[in-house]
Amino acid sequence: MNRENFANGRRWALASTIGLGTVAALLVFCIVYSPAETFQASGQGLTIWWRIVFPALLPFLVLSQILLAGGFAQGLGTLLEPFTRKVLGLPGTVGWVLPLGMTVGFPAAAEATATLYKQGKISTLEAEKLASAAHFSSPMLVIVVIGTGFLGKPELGLLLLIVHWAAGLATGITSHVLSPSRSKVQTPKDKIVQHKKTSRLQLALLNMEEVRREDGRGFGKILGDSVISGVQTMMVTGGYMLIFAVVIQVISSFLPAGIPAFPVAGLFEAHLGSYSIAKLATTPVIQSALLGAVLGWSGLCAILQVRAILGPLGIKGSYFWRNRILHGIYAYIFTLLFWKPLTWFTGVLPASIEVNPNGSIKSAEFLLPNWRQAITMLEWQTWLLGLLIGIFLVLGLFWRKHIDK
Q1: How far apart are CA 260 and CA 275, in angstroms?
Q2: Please, which residues bridge with residue 355 across strands?
Q3: Whole-model pTM?
Q4: What is d(CA 368, CA 83) in angstroms, rounded to the nearest whole number?
Q5: Cα distances (Å, whole numbers) of residue 358 to 238, 283, 284, 287, 304
Q6: Rounded Cα gap, residues 345 and 231, in angstroms
Q7: pLDDT tens digits, residue range 265-300?
Q8: Of 44, 87, 102, which Cα lies nearest the Cα of 403?
Q9: pLDDT band at 71 (very low <50, low <70, confident <90, very high)
């Protein structure tokens, strides 16, 4: 296994070198070709990172690392293991990673997966499937930026978030059906007797204590390391967003006048792709379906951010490409199929949407959330994260009591 990981790491390093060289050459060309547009695009990417991604992600990155060091995710995984293995084909730690991805976003889920893998709690295949299943866009982007800022309708952002979550869960189930996991719950031999005589709650507490003891760091050290790791992840994320903002700007400038720019922007980056679609002249349902598809795909920028976290550990990315395509397709189809009931549920009735004469939604300018909106969203994300973890616990305990034999 170590040799395989070493070989995968070398291949990742080679691919990263080639990719970085190509991107560097492209950036030099962009700067020389159109320095003014390049500067404007880089400023736009930096603004998105600072106003949206940084406040929505950094606190949860630090919190996640602290909880992982204390064994919270591992203890939760002990309680949920029978349920998640049979239903989702994933280890019990998905009970922490999946809600984290749904409420915070994919970088936090990928970082948590990487930590679990480095702790030896999940295998290489489990890490790849776990990070792929928990790959979601942040609710800050979907509700505040797209719904409120781009479209001027927060309820429409809520509709997009519901579809985004449903399509992501459908993608995870489909992935499990297409590639069922054959791994079983692994219990060390010296703990088999203890496992039989101990309740699952007690076993979860014992596993938490074991993880904390193996970590061995004091709280001050854990807090400092968590902040350093979170800031480093944020720097990498910001660099990717800045680079892709420049690339999208330059490529779009080469497109003929009659060709829309949203396919290019949506292919590379979700924030800018969503903004391009928000300005598109089309019907509300098609516009929402395209937004759902872009959010499900998440963009090459997001995929490469995850690869930057998992690739050096030797974790492959084949599931990511397939699942991102499936996520986008599911989101597009779900929006078309359930548009009427979802608009009724969220209060976005077609008559209440402000539309242009050609039928498209009147989109706002490139509005970003203010700090009050960001703080409110952080509170909402925290409560939602706890709620989703509670739902997982209820489902896991119900499964064990009434179904699991």
Answers
A1: 12
A2: 361
A3: 0.84
A4: 40
A5: 37, 8, 11, 13, 37
A6: 39
A7: 899 999 889 988 988 878 889 999 999 999 999 998
A8: 87
A9: confident
